[in-house]
Amino acid sequence: MLSLGHDGSLSKVSSNSVLGGAVSMASYNNKSALALAHYGPEPAISLFTIDGKNTISSLQNITFPAPANESAPEQIHQAVVDPTGQYMIFPSLGADTVHVYCIDPVTHLLTEHAPLKSKQGYGPRHAVFWTGTNSTTTYLFVVHEKANKITSYEVCYLEQGGLTFTEVDEVSTYGNQTVPPATFASEMTLSPDNKFLIAANRNGTVFTVENSDPNNSTQLPSDSLVTFKPSADGKLSFVQLAKSGGVYPRHFGMNQNGSLIAVANQLSKNVNIYARNLKTGFIEDGKAVARADNLGPGDLMFVQWLEQQ
């Protein structure tokens, strides 16, 4: 755990060893506990407590043995807390499963419930819960890396505990365009105003962008971001397919009011920032507001806004 100084500096507060391959984390129980999703080499879920002095202590490791036929290995890719704070879900890309757990509010431990099964070969990667304005119905949107589909489910909370999911819609992560071969969906999130759903596509360079070198007129390849507008019944209406500004957008993030979106393009090692129209949801991808290049030496995996409250 690190603290952030006013000048942007980072200071270590506490630490603990974890299992390998952690790719996502979520805080729960009023930020008194953390859950980590481990993709591999040993797929797992690990839990930690955080005390009043910000000391991190190991609590529980949930591991997933390899299947006998090795045809559908677990690949835990994200930890997501539901809107009530009572449940946590973990999409497993390799097993075509979204694991569902109930959260103990006192011990912080997780109890497994019946999972959500995706269609075979879809590869669920990330998920977000959504409740519309003036609505009591909760929906779950799941983006599938291998199928390049977003599936919308109506969520039902069972009196005896657990969740059930009813599919209400399914859309392509390329909207109304043909899906390129060997492309893989990645990040997905809601806009800060809760009105739009945005996902990224990798390895499907359907666009080009200006060269970062002002003396070079050669256009560079660009992957894409897709925007949908959820409706009250959980269905998704296509809004736009926009440029990511580079190759293999693994992650993106919006500023506090959603007027800007920063895209981390993994293989081209650049971050592009575009303006967003808050009313229409359109990403103004004709020209980047700002761009940072050559962000190596390794692959670019994540981008985070830091704004004063």
Structure, described:
- This protein is mostly beta strands.
- It has a domain of 171 residues: Methylamine Dehydrogenase, Chain H (7 Propeller), CATH 2.130.10.
- It contains no helices and 25 strands.
- The strands form seven sheets. Strands 21, 22, 23, 24 and 25 form a five-stranded antiparallel beta sheet that branches.
- Strand 1 and strand 2 form a beta hairpin.
- InterPro entries: Cycloisomerase_2, Lactonase_7-beta_prop, N2O_reductase_N, WD40/YVTN_repeat-like_dom_sf.
- This is 6-phosphogluconolactonase.
- What oligomeric state is this? single chain
The coarse overall form would be globular
What is the overall number of helices?
Answer: 0
Approximate strand percentage: over 45%
InterPro entries: Cycloisomerase_2, Lactonase_7-beta_prop, N2O_reductase_N, WD40/YVTN_repeat-like_dom_sf
Protein name: 6-phosphogluconolactonase
Family: Belongs to the cycloisomerase 2 family.
GO molecular function, one term: 6-phosphogluconolactonase activity
Task: Give a quick precis of the structure.
This protein has no helices and 25 strands. It is mainly beta.
Tags for this model:
6-phosphogluconolactonase activity; N2O_reductase_N; mainly beta; five-stranded antiparallel sheet; globular; single chain; 25 strands; 309 residues; Lactonase_7-beta_prop; 6-phosphogluconolactonase; Methylamine Dehydrogenase, Chain H; four-stranded antiparallel sheet; 0% helix
